[in-house]
Amino acid sequence: MGVPSLPWQRLHIDFAGSVEGKMLMVVIDAHSKWPEIFVMEITTAEETVSMLRSLFVRMGLPDHMVSDNGPQFTSETFRKFTTANGLKHVTGAPYHPSTHGQAERLVQSFKKGVKADKSSRTLQHKLDRFLLAYRSAPHATTELSPAQLLLGRNVKTRLDLIKPDVTRKVNKKLLHAGHLVKPPPKLKDYFTVEIQVIDVTPGALLLQEDDEGVEHPVGYFSKRFNKSQKNYPTIEKECLAPVLPLEHFQVDVSSSRLPIVVYSDHNPLAFSYDLFVDTTLMATQSLTEENSDLSENEDVQEIEDPILVAVNAGASLRSPTSAVIARKRKLPANEGKYKQRGSSKTTVRTSAWDRITEYPKHHFAVVNRKLRCNACSEIISEKKSSIEKHIKSKKHERGLSEIAKSKSESQTITACFQRRDNREKACGSTLPAEMRLFRFEVVESFLSGGIALTKVDALRPLLEKHGHRLTNRAHLSELIPAVLENEKDKLKKELKDVKEASVIFDGTARLGEALAVIVRYVQENFQPTQRLIRLDILAKALKGEELAQRLMSCLAVDYHFGPTAIIGGMRDGASVNGAALRQLMFFYPKLFDVVCFSHTIDNVGNHFEFKILDLFARYWISMFSHSYNARLVWRERTGQSIRTFSETRWWSKWEVLRQVSEYFGDVEPFLRENDEVSPGNRRRLLEIFFLLHLMGSQ
Q1: Would you say 245 and 213 are in contact if contact means Cβ atoms under 8 Å apart?
Q2: Roughly what angle, to the nearest 10 degrees, separates helices 652-662 and 664-673?
Q3: Residue 346 contacts by C-beta under 8 Å, 6 or more apart in sequence?
Q4: Nearest to 218 by CA among 247, 245, 191
Q5: What predicted TM-score, i.e. pTM, was given to this entire model?
Q6: Do the domains 497-598 and 10-159 match in fold?
Q7: Which residues pair with 531 in a beta bridge?
Q8: Mean pLDDT confidence for 282-292
Q9: Which of 582, 553, 572 is CA-nearest to residue 508?
Q10: Residues 400, 371: contact at Cβ < 8 Å?
Q11: Which of 52-66, 223-237, 286-300 has the highest mean pLDDT?
Q12: Residue 536, helix vs strand vs coil
């Protein structure tokens, strides 16, 4: 089931096992993950309906409810309750708890919380503490707290007492201020800036004390981070919080000759000072860095700077422009017998984001504030010399070529999806292109690796860990036709330049009529290559004309092999295959009919008569095919596994008899020493050996 788009739309309900001798009914909202847990003495259908009715009075009715097949949820009382309230009740499949896995996981979390609480509190007390913590903490799936998603706000907890409530203080000051710009600010007095960041919006209030010592707001600032600023590390986001308001207030306070004191509940101002020092405001005034609990009665400590005192008194001071020779000359900081230690240069630290901008075509990314090369799948140093060495390595060059190849394949797959969408409303046509591409590659990898698609549900958590969201096996199987179509496009692109090729085809009726068609050709580097171009499952065996039509449509129509391209046709000796090739020769006049040598030799051998050898082979094969103990004893004696016979592997009989000839000296001792192994076949084989000894003695 997908995630509902609205809160309180689908609820998952379950009963937890006995916890401290009592049963618990668990209800969780699928959208917001808001939990409700009820302690119940009895778990009858009537009591369950009563608890749900009390819940719905407070929270309202949902659209759907999901539960297991417990007797409370399948009873007539519960059915009448859901029908009367217009609720759609869905029960999960028996022995398939993942249907209501959200409720199951909430039960596990609660049991762990109760087990970790070693106090003597009552179960209800522990339950209340757990619910408050669960509802106010950000959820791992939604990254927001259940309270914020359901109620639109975070519930207040004791943790909020640690963090000062700047919003409440600002609102209080705005309430008592009358309106924002009255009284007018005094440009020769101190200003105070209070700053706060809520989610992705930095805000600030510019304050000034009146003659009675009461602070009044004289200006405010609020601005959302842009798309690039949202991707900044946390420390850089925090430093923007004071930088952006001060740049905004610069116009209003530029004529003030007093320092601006910035109060904030974080301490990144040392980092922000380097970013802000070049502005006009910082060039004429000083930024005092202080940590404050935003108390109104805290005294401001002034920094005694002689130049600043003179400026405040009305002096007009300006730094003179240095001569060119003076700017180029370096004076050592300490002279005498001690040499200069260190460098007077200011180290400019380049962030990982700057390296991405500096090397845009090398597929760098920032992961956990570290520079990562996606082409090589590894973390690298941010040092420029290390990066230069890395991008010149062969490993990085191979990684870039693989990414380019992957992009080309992705474009081919996307084009395949577009063609299918134009022909019909394909499954998943409304999904994002990246998600469809990811699902396609998963299905293609499973099929090419020979892994059954039924295993994808077990591997789904691993595949989704660092990728897009998948779906279940039934929906992924609908992508198989798209994978097949894309594979055919690859084959057509590969075979379009083939000048000469031979065709190999065969069919089998063992588990149903199947037809396989293979083309074999030699590449420019003289490497023999063969490709399977068709595998058809048919209702019945084909006749000569039907087989010729299949081959013709495959070679000439689907893969565009011209009249001179097919120069050979390999088949077994069945008459229907010969009739089909004779029809193909009308279009492919250079086609040479080749009957399978292996089948020919095998069929010739069937006409040879070896009475004693055939009799020995029959009993020998029968002994090992019906006795696992015989196979085990043979392996212990010879160190080799016994060769087995198969009706469909026509060369398997030769493998069996060749092994007998190689270990012929062990065959008779093996039969005489193991009288408990397949007694009937053993007795007949020993009789054959006895007959051979008699014939040899004569």
Answers
A1: no
A2: 80
A3: none
A4: 191
A5: 0.37
A6: yes
A7: 519
A8: 35
A9: 572
A10: no
A11: 52-66
A12: strand
- Taken in order 260, 264, 267, 271, is the CA torsion positive or negative? negative
Give tens-digit pLDDT for 192-213.
777 776 656 778 877 877 777 7
Q: What is the DSSP string of 411-461?
A: HHHHHHHHHHHHHS--TTTTS-HHHHHHHHHHHHHHHHTT--GGGHHHHHH
The dihedrals phi and psi of 630, each to the nearest 5 degrees, come to -65, -40
* Alpha helix positions (H), 177-294: 227-230, 234-253, 269-276, 280-284
Host H or E run for residue 398? helix 394-423
Q: Which CATH superfamily is domain 10-159 in?
A: Ribonuclease H-like superfamily/Ribonuclease H (3.30.420.10)
Mean pLDDT of the 90-110 span = 70
Mean pLDDT of the chain: 77
Q: Provide the token pair at 410.
A: 């992705």
Q: How far is Cα 46 from Cα 65, in angstroms, rounded to an integer?
A: 17
Kindly state the tokens that stand for 574.
């069945």
Correct CATH for 179-274 of 3.40.50.410, 3.10.20.370, 2.40.50.360, 3.30.710.10:
3.10.20.370
- Both tokens of residue 96? 């398939």
Phi-psi region of 66 (alpha: psi -120 to 50; beta: other; left: phi over 0): beta
What is the rounded distance in angstroms from the CA atom of residue 44 to the CA atom of residue 239?
58
> What CA–CA distance (Å, rounded) separates 282 from 190?
16
In the block, tokens 């020092």 appear at 277
Q: How far apart, in whole angstroms, are the C-alpha atoms of residue 499 and residue 262?
A: 79
- In this structure, are residues 531 and 517 in contact, taking their beta carbons and an 8 Å threshold? no
Q: Any idea what DSSP says for residue 299?
A: P
Q: What integer pLDDT is reported at residue 253 of this predicted model? A: 44
CATH class of 497-598: alpha beta
Alpha-helical regions (H) of 496-627: 544-552, 575-584, 597-605, 611-626
Amino acid (one-letter) located at 522: V
Spans of all domains in the chain: 10-159, 179-274, 352-392, 401-475, 497-598, 608-696
Q: Is 189 left (phi over 0), alpha (psi -120 to 50) or beta?
A: beta
Using the Cα atoms of residue 494, residue 496, residue 497 and residue 502 in order, give the sign of their dihedral.
Answer: positive
Rounded to a whole number, what is the distance in angstroms from the first to the last CA of the chain? Answer: 83
Residues of 100-115 as b/e, b for ≥16 C-beta within 10 angstroms? bebbbebbeebeebbe
